[in-house]
Amino acid sequence: MERRSRLTPEREAEIYECVERLVREHGYENVTMQQIAAEAHTSTATLYRHWNGKPRLVVEAVRNRKPHPLEAVDTGSLRGDLVAGVGPMEHAAPGDHELMAGIHNAARSDADLAAAVREVMAAPIERAVETVIDRAIARGEIPPDPPGRRFVHELLLAPIAVRPMMTGKHPDSEYLTAYIDAVILPALGVRRDH
Amino acid sequence: MERRSRLTPEREAEIYECVERLVREHGYENVTMQQIAAEAHTSTATLYRHWNGKPRLVVEAVRNRKPHPLEAVDTGSLRGDLVAGVGPMEHAAPGDHELMAGIHNAARSDADLAAAVREVMAAPIERAVETVIDRAIARGEIPPDPPGRRFVHELLLAPIAVRPMMTGKHPDSEYLTAYIDAVILPALGVRRDH
């Protein structure tokens, strides 16, 4: 990471904080690199050198604040990992869902932003999901090749992405736990009568 | 429907067509009732009298063109109904997904639009899903109170809402059929070895 060597982690965190605040206040589309540079007391040249452009800078900033809980989890059971991994969705600040929805919306017409979202946000969660499933297979909790494996990543995102659209409400922990038991575990080959 | 009695179905269809074209071209937020009235050769007073406002007019226009395929389906089996009901997602015009994504995005900051989406679009699909499940229960295909029942509506929308966000691709029919077999049917209590 030579190209980033001139920024300390503290400085990087300060810049990320500015970026996130500006995007929350003004929306992704309306924030400029000039604005970010001014607020963070740096230059656009420095921002471009380190992050290549607005898409990557914003996505790294948002991800930096809050890695997906599934990445840090290892409870010893598949159900435990899933519950610990999605439970915190309920406790997201109200603005967090808005922030992500705004970024996803901007990504529909911005291919660089869409690529940054996939690479910086979606890919690590995808790897975390794979790790959780591999551990469950190794423990013998589920069959070696569960039919729903390829869908688990998007199933985990569905409650936050789809439900608010249809009901105006974000899912609570009762809902998320029931969803894991009734949808995700059966898709991974866990029988209901187990 | 006395208040609508002065518009013939043909006239209504013409107005809906104008509305949809304008929203596709300019985006929900940018289209005005004045613009719609001018294009459709009518008055804003008429539009407000019949549709109450832009949210309801736009949502009725989009829905009118294309009711959800699940509403018309009755193949005689649960799997058949689901495949017939989601298969056509694959054949949506590229702009259709964009149109809906734009409306959902606008609905995040427009409570009247969000209510119209729920009432005019989501509720009929929800009822269609209930009907499909009730028929499967009546035929004895699934248990009377399948644990995943409450999640089926959002599971059906997840592939179009979540997958493009993560992969940049819309689901094809192989994907959708595998998803029905691996996720939705097990959530409704259909055993894999059946």
UniProtKB/TrEMBL annotation, chains A, B:
Q: What is this protein called?
A: TetR family transcriptional regulator
Residue ranges of every copy of the HTH tetR-type domain listed in the record? 9-69
Keyword Protein transport belongs to the record: no
Ranges of the DNA-binding region feature: 32-51
Keywords (A to Z) from UniProt: DNA-binding, Transcription, Transcription regulation
- Which stretch is the leader sequence? none
PANTHER family documented for this protein: HTH-TYPE TRANSCRIPTIONAL REGULATOR RUTR, TETR-FAMILY TRANSCRIPTIONAL REGULATOR
Q: Which InterPro entries match?
A: Homeodomain-like_sf, HTH-type_TetR-like_transc_reg, HTH_TetR, Tet_transcr_reg_TetR-rel_C_sf, TetR_C
A single Gene Ontology MF term assigned here is: transcription cis-regulatory region binding
Q: Which PROSITE patterns match?
A: HTH_TETR_2
